[in-house]
Specification:
30% of the residues lie in helices and 18% in strands. By secondary structure, it is an alpha/beta fold.
Length: 247
Amino acid sequence: MPYLSGATATASSTDVGTGFGIPGYAHPLVAPAEWGELTRPGIPLHWVVLNVAGGPGTLPDPHCLAAAGRLRNTGVRVLGHLDVAHGARTDVLPDAQRYLDWYRVDGFLLDRCPADRAALPGIRRTIATLRALSDDAHIVLGHGTHPHPDYAENADQLVTFAGPWSDYRWSQAEEWTADYPPGHFCHFVHGVPRPHLEEALRIARWQGAATIWMTDRTDRGGGTDPWETMPGYWDEIVSRIGTGVSE
């Protein structure tokens, strides 16, 4: 069974609304149904990542602009995708500025964010640069694992799990996460079979992650992006998130 840290009691005893964080659908021309579904009333969305071409692209894309505009008009945050390459890439200012100028994003996901303490000063500087561009930017650090606890003080949210169901079902929340509300953490899980969906949602609640994305799509050994399309049980997971998961 998953390790039930102190975050368990926090997640279960507070009225924090669970919602989706979309790691990044395929381009709107490739996945029009996915993007269109996100504007349907009642979808519990916290934010959606816009990844035009490994970043903002070299020119404004009218299809991405329209998709982002429709989401923002319904009050959903749109985050620009910035790949920091495990800390090797620190100059994200040009891409961030393009996202703001072209798509009016509400914040950024720093994908492949390092998790070790040694890289923290560089990430702090990157976040300071982004907040200088937009002081109300929503910043999500895409570690994909539990980082050093000090990262939690520097961003609005941390992605503390991103990976397959085979790992997630035995995952453990680190004890320091109990010091933060569930809204501070995000979990992205692929390869979740339909019969295990309720169990996966419970694990997220037990571990204190209020922003989630779960799908039955897989990465096929790293050959595909499991986040690019909606799960086969989309209507079911929307219903479950909307009504809550029984304990």
